[in-house]
Structure formats: C-alpha cells, structure tokens
Inverse folding.
C-alpha cells in the first residue's frame, strides 16, 4: 500500500452483508449509538481516528488478515461492542460488530 494521507477524511464502506446484519440486529439503543459512531467517523480524519481515545483503533495481531489486506483493526462502535475493519485508501471497510469483546480478538 502506498503512503496514505493521514489528513484525509475517513470514508465509510458499510456494504459488508455481515456488518449490515450485525448492525441491524443490535437492540435499538445500541443501534443508535453505533449510528452516532458512524456519523462521527464521517466527520474526522484518519489521524484523528488513530488518536481518538474513545474509538480506540487497535490492530488485531491474533488474527492473520486475508490476502490483500495489510491488517485487521478494531474500534469501539458502541460502549460495549467493537467493530472489525480495515483501511483501504480513504475508506474504512467495516466487517463485523462483535457481540462479545473477546471474540473480536479471536480469543474464543
């Protein structure tokens, strides 16, 4: 991957069917919280995402990423749930929302 502009705004890719299923099956209060997080992501730069203590963007080292993806990351999507994602240029490609914090890191 070429050097990416850390000052470019985060663009969302919400097209993964598993992510959509996870998002739409959240209880209403958590779904609204997740949507607020997605709204926040659209308004910040990549550098802000990396530094945001509330989102806690973290690389998952316990899971080998698929071919063509440098790394899989997690971020806090609600107060009690984390989403998995990867960066693809200016896009954050969201993959899942885990029901259990440990599952996100491949521990269960």
């Amino acid at each position: 991957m070429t050097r990416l502009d850390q000052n470019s705004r985060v663009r969302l890719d919400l097209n993964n069917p598993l992510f959509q299923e996870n998002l739409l099956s959240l209880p209403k209060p958590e779904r609204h919280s997740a949507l607020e997080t997605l709204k926040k992501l659209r308004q910040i730069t990549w550098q802000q995402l990396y530094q945001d203590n509330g989102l806690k963007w973290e690389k998952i080292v316990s899971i080998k990423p698929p071919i063509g993806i440098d790394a899989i990351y997690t971020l806090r999507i609600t107060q009690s749930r984390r989403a998995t994602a990867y960066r693809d240029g200016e896009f954050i490609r969201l993959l899942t929302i885990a029901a259990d914090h440990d599952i996100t890191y491949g521990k269960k």
